[in-house]
Amino acid sequence: MPCRTGAWHDRRVPRPRTVRPQLPAEIGVHDGLSYSLWLPRSPEPPPGAVITLHGAGSCKENHYDFARAATGAGLAAIAFDQRGHGDSQGPLDGGALDDVVAIAALLRSRLGGGDASPPVAVRGSSMGGYLALVSAAAVGAAAVVAICPASNEGLRRGLSDGRFTFGADWPALDRFLADHDVAAAAGRLEVPVLLLHAEGDEQVPVEHSRELAAVLRSPRSRLITLPGGHHQSIQHDGEMQAVSLRFISRVLERASPGREQADPRPS
After folding, report:
1. CATH architecture group of domain 23-255
2. How many CB atoms lie within 10 A of CB 110?
């Protein structure tokens, strides 16, 4: 029986395609804070934006995957190195909340500023999750996503135990943490909050997020716990990033300037 391989050998082999990952639209330093701004490729202005806050000992580059995912969802995003981390200047101290506010103002200025500026969400993990909840009101955030958020007392214990290696003004930072209770801040928020937590988290117990969920005011707030995992497993999980972005997009759509508020059913 003749071998019929000619057709297979004659097939055109597809040429490899060069994949160019999206890069930040702008990299700079603002008030000593090193940041990267990400914009969607659409010619239309983005309907909203996300401020990304990293955890203790991390840096903005570790969250570029989420920034790229945000632009893919049509949102702008900004990530920055908190003081004492990455390329930002000075130690982390009692001005941590002011730094988030400054980055939010920078983000809004890049998106047009004024009353027509698109709504902003804050998304953070671990210490960044704590800061997201604590800074949301001052930032004027329309939504918050907190992933395995640390407690202020847990962060204070980490400081006293010497578990953190980032540059910090330890007394000033300890006073800041003592003065900014995360449960009290969460209980004052009127905007929707999404809490994500791995039940296998070895650093921040999942019970902490359950306690925070119990004090949230908005009926559109949600708590999602995942079996297993560890302290960093959710923040880089593609499916959970998609869940976060759907939550943010739906909330920001309702918060857009000139849009009437929809009914408050959970998204």
Report:
1. 3-Layer(aba) Sandwich (3.40)
2. 16
Amino acid found at 132:
A
**Coil, strand, or helix at residue 146?**
strand
Q: Which helix (H) or strand (E) holds 178?
A: helix 170-179
pLDDT of residue 265: 40
CB 62 within 8 A of CB 129: no
Evaluate whether 105 touches 120 at the Cβ level (below 8 Å): no
Here the tokens at position 188 are: 């004052």
Angstrom distances, CA of residue 33 to CA of 26, 63, 79, 83: 14, 16, 10, 7
Question: How far is the C-alpha of 159 from the C-alpha of 140, rounded, in Å?
Answer: 29
Cβ partners under 8 Å of residue 122, min gap 6? 50, 51, 53, 100, 132, 135, 136, 139, 141, 143, 144, 145
What residue ranges do the domains of the chain occupy? 23-255
Look at residue 67 in the predicted model and tell me its pLDDT. Answer: 97
Structure tokens at 9: 């050998």
Of 29-38, 47-56, 193-202, 255-264, least confident by mean pLDDT is 255-264
Helix 64-72 vs helix 238-255: crossing angle, to nearest 10: 50
Whether this prediction's pTM lies above 0.85 is answered by yes
Measured distance CA(167)–CA(9) in Å, rounded: 61
Q: Hey, which bits of 21-68 come out as E strands? A: 26-30, 33-38, 49-53
